[in-house]
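Issue: ligand-bound run for 3,4-dihydroxyphenylalanine - logging full I/O for the record.

Environment: standard queue, default settings, no custom constraints.

Inputs:
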Amino acid sequence: MSDIAKLERDILAAVKAAKDEASLEAARVAALGKKGSISELLKTLGAMSAEERKAKGPAFNSLRDRVAGAIAARRAELADASLNSRLQSEKIDVTLPARPEPRGTVHPVSQVFDELTAIFADLGFAVAEGPDVEYDDYNFTKLNIPPDHAARQMHDTFYVSRQADGERHVLRTHTSPVQVRTMLKQKPPIRIIAPGRTYRVDSDATHSPMFHQFEGLVVDDATNLGHLKWTLEEFCKAFFEVDKVEMRARPSYFPFTEPSVEWDLRCDRSGGQIKFGTGNDWLELAGSGIVHPRVLAMCGIDPEKYQGYAFGGGIDRLAMLKYGIPDIRSFFESDLRWLRHYGFAALDIPTLDGGLSR
Ligand code: DAH
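Outputs:
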């Protein structure tokens, strides 16, 4: 076999053996690259006599063309093969049945969080948050409950061991410290709603050591108890999905409001059901009042210029009433059958126009 025939056979074998783009490129460079075997061969033409060049030139050139053709063909083969393997591995069977419905449900407490924020958002309130582990200062002192104040006893507080910052911390006993946090960082007008977790050392059929509250705060230059009452009424109508409610005000005492008012909702509990707007029963709804000037001042707001109202109440009880759940402890037992029974469709978000609790 001539040297040329052998060279051609070797190159074509290497091209055929190339299993991927990289090894094919290596074979191409070895043959046709600047220092490749065929390029070297073509260079020898320059030193030949005219006769010899005439004889060998066409053979060398056609060798180069055959090799280039073989490389192009192999490249196309490899591209086809890689496309086919991708098509195989990324195949989707569109005839398979759709995934089953999601099995998780939204917990009634989360549902009430969502309903509450949707209603208050409609009234122009923004959602505010604070941490569960709170400064003693924000949970009590800045709410006008100094360290020796009797009201501290009523809160059955979980104390947290002293932190690195030297501050005393507690598990917040109510959502009212969110008022403090909001006023410390925001200038009036303020209009916030803060649903969240709260903690007290207490546990029976109607008390859980961890429970949920909502807190509302409005601070502006002309707010009064009438605004407060209207706001709570609008909330109750939307939340309980009734056209009419009747509220009763009771004088009360909270250190952070003056005057302080507790609100009850007229209801009828006869026949094992609860109806609002009629009947002779009253249901405790929320504590509230006009924000104490001392609280405003401690939170950096001028009480000569601004005043506000605040309110707060239990979320778990709202959920129990609205959805007929008898025992608060069942909320936190993580019983799957309970969750399937009382839970809400995971993809439905309550809105006032779309319905709160379809
Ligand atoms: N923080 C009070 C509690 O846990 C409830 C409350 C009363 C909140 C009056 C308020 C308020 O914002 O103005 O019992």
